[in-house]
Task: structure prediction
Amino acid sequence: MKIALLGGTGDMGEGLALRWAKNHEVIIGSREEQKGMRVAGEYLAKAKAFYGDAMVGTIRGTSNPEAAAQADVIVLTIPHEYAASTILSIKDRLKPSQIVVSPVVPMVKVDKGVMYSPIMKDNKVMSYAEALAKELKDVPVVAAYHAISAKKLADPALVLNYDVPIAGDDEEAVKVVVRLTQEIRNLRPVYVGPLKSALMIEALTPLIINAAIYSKIKDASIAFVQ
Ligand SMILES: NC(=O)c1ccc[n+]([C@@H]2O[C@H](COP(=O)([O-])OP(=O)(O)OC[C@H]3O[C@@H](n4cnc5c(N)ncnc54)[C@H](OP(=O)(O)O)[C@@H]3O)[C@@H](O)[C@H]2O)c1
Result:
């Protein structure tokens, strides 16, 4: 599968690239093609050193538009202030057969800690992912990976015993993201309903960050317990 990580030169991009490069063609997108190529080369060296001969995938870099054009799955690993404008600037070139994955969490700093800052659109409060889906129309959007620490993801030796809540309206697109999640050791994909549910998923991240700030629980994630 071809997976584009837009803004993949940053923290989340590194983690997802290193995890998926074992089996997939990962394309690192950047605002600067040269930076994308350079950083992809660094990730590739790390992935090869870790997986050795077991690695059948690869990592290469290019510009964000080029990465998006070549991919089956496009992950928005860009801060919330810039993620939507980046993908919307190329929306006419996207195809309904592609899948856009949003791990994007809109939040603001407050006195001590952070607060979730959902999107206000058409007089309705909605998640970042839902607002994006309204703009992208025929291209399915799936919300996932909001509560995974990029730092932990970037160490492929770490087994992540976490749950990944996933929301989306397109059944086939959700299935693809579920499979990609299962490929990351011990991550358990948990479908939590249509894209409307992304409002609750996105809100988990500021909660986790505040747990770190107020209660010193560092780099935590979430798991559903029974
Ligand atoms: N960090 C985490 O632990 C974590 C966990 C879960 C979800 N997330 C979500 O994942 C997304 C990425 O987070 P991150 O921590 O990886 O972000 P980041 O490292 O701060 O930035 C990622 C990349 O965004 C690009 N970028 C920066 N400013 C930009 C601009 N003005 N316009 C377009 N692109 C710009 C840069 O790539 P180029 O310079 O190469 O263009 C940068 O390397 C966020 O939406 C965040 O909410 C993060």
Remarks:
- The chain has a mean pLDDT of 97.
- The pocket of NAP is lined by residues 7, 9-13, 30-31, 35, 77-80, 82-83, 86, 103-105, 145-146, 148-150 (CB under 6 Å).
- DSSP finds nine helices and twelve strands in the chain.
- The two ends are 34 Å apart (CA to CA).
